[in-house]
Design a protein that fits this description.
The protein is an alpha/beta fold. The protein folds into two domains: about 1-215, Spore Coat Polysaccharide Biosynthesis Protein SpsA, Chain A (Alpha-Beta Complex), CATH 3.90.550.10; about 245-370, no CATH class. Helix content is about 55%, strand content about 20%. The protein has helices at about 15-30, 45-60, 70-80, 100-110, 130-135, 140-145, 145-150, 165-170, 185-195, 215-235, 250-265, 270-295, 300-305, 305-325, 340-370; strands at about 1-10, 35-40, 60-65, 85-90, 95, 115-125, 150-155, 160-165, 200-210, 240-245, 330-335. Strands 1, 2, 3, 4, 5, 6, 7, 8 and 9 form a nine-stranded mixed sheet that branches. Strand 1, helix 1 (about 15-30) and strand 2 (about 35-40) form a beta-alpha-beta unit. Helix 1 (about 15-30) packs parallel to helix 2 (about 45-60) and helix 10 (about 215-235) crosses helix 14. It is elongated and about 80 Å long.
Length: about 375
């Protein structure tokens, strides 16, 4: 191993975004003051792999033919890397000047138990409605705010994460049995932490992330479903970080549906009244949640759909839990960080008031219907 920095970029297609990233790396490497190796691990189809190879050759980057698994691509690159420090970057980011030096400086000042360094990711581009909903639900929070809020974190997104190669390989790299997309970065952080290591932050190491890869519902539905599946696997692997959560909206409405079926069977309520009660419950949750979650300058319609983001992930986790014979995990969540609850408090309060309003209105409709008013 030598002093310097090896950059690992997993990709499939995206040669236009990859071009922007490689240009930004080349510009920053000129003034870095140390050797920079770039390794692209690609599994593009026949139509795109030649384009990837061409842009890689232009910027003196190595190309390795990889597999579909992003985690396995990163592992392949880490094994081939020649430097002690490895910087993982996603193909849809580009780095700002000074980023490479910021990572090396931070880790060179830290003891060996600091196994990595999380850089900052800011999202740029046209904010579509789908992106605004994602952003309002704080999914980009680990990317954009963690480096500003803490000197050390339990885990960090591998869109922009630097690690010491020796420590990374010591814990086995990325777990390639995780779902194809999502959770592998959390799992890596937990395993490093469990081995007594830490991940530092470098807020002056900045990458810009293209919103376009998060900008449509189609892209996000697939991503959210995989995130939900990953939650199940994280609960299995890291049960010490699990806790029982408050009931979610879908679980509440499922219980309300069972109650309505009983009431209709005993002719205590009509089918029309039952539908009205369930509809009022769902509407009340979304409206009250959105009103409380809304902040100055934000739009109500963005928050109205917000809870659906988590429910997609919850449903995916539920399916995975039932499929593997562990249904009780449906009611559990992973504690991703120990000291960031203040950032989640508005979400927690909004959800709690939404659940309360949902129950109250549900009971009112049933009561009115049952007494014939």
């Amino acid at each position: 191993m030598t002093n310097g920095l090896s950059i690992i970029i997993p990709t499939r297609g995206r040669h236009d975004l990859l071009t922007d990233l490689l240009e930004s790396i080349s510009a920053d490497a000129e003034n870095a003051g140390f050797d920079v190796e770039v390794i692209i691990v690609d599994d593009s189809n026949e139509n795109e792999k030649d384009l990837i190879l061409h842009v890689a050759t232009t910027h003196k980057a190595k190309v390795i033919r990889g597999v579909a698994s992003v985690g396995e691509k990163r592992n392949m690159g880490a094994i081939k890397a020649i430097h002690d420090l490895i910087l993982f970057l996603d193909s849809d980011v580009k780095i700002l000047p000074g980023t490479l030096r910021a990572h090396v400086n931070r880790l060179s000042q830290e003891p060996e138990d600091v196994a990595g360094c999380l850089g900052k990711v800011i999202f740029v581009g046209t904010p579509t409605y789908a992106w605004q909903v994602i952003e309002a639900m704080q999914l980009p929070l680990p990317f954009s705010l963690y480096p500003d809020l803490a000197d050390y974190v339990t885990w960090g997104p591998t869109a922009h994460l630097c690690v010491r190669r020796e420590q990374f390989l010591k814990v086995g790299g990325f777990d390639t049995t995780m779902p194809r997309y999502g959770g592998e970065d959390v799992d890596l952080g937990f395993r490093l932490t469990n081995q007594g290591m830490r991940i530092a932050t470098a807020p002056d190491a900045v990458a810009e992330h293209a919103i376009e890869t998060w900008g449509t519902w189609r892209l996000n539905l697939r991503r959210l479903w995989s995130f939900g599946k990953a939650d199940y696997h994280l609960l299995i692997r890291h049960s010490e970080r699990s806790f029982y959560d408050f009931p979610t909206g879908p679980l509440l409405w499922l219980l309300q549906t069972f109650l309505l079926i009983v009431l209709m069977a005993t002719k205590s309520i009509t089918p029309v009244a039952a539908l009205c009660a369930l509809g009022a419950s769902i509407a009340a949750y979304h409206l009250v949640y959105a009103l409380i979650k809304r902040e100055e300058g934000s739009r109500l319609r963005v928050h109205l759909l917000g809870p659906i983001i988590f429910w997609i992930m919850d449903f995916a986790k539920a399916v995975e839990s039932v499929k593997h014979g562990r249904p009780m995990l449906i009611f559990q969540r992973i504690k991703f960080h120990d000291d960031f609850i203040a950032l989640d408090w508005r979400e927690i309060a909004s959800s709690a008031w939404g659940i309360t309003a949902s129950n109250v209105l549900f009971l009112i409709v049933i009561l009115i219907s049952s007494i014939g008013i």
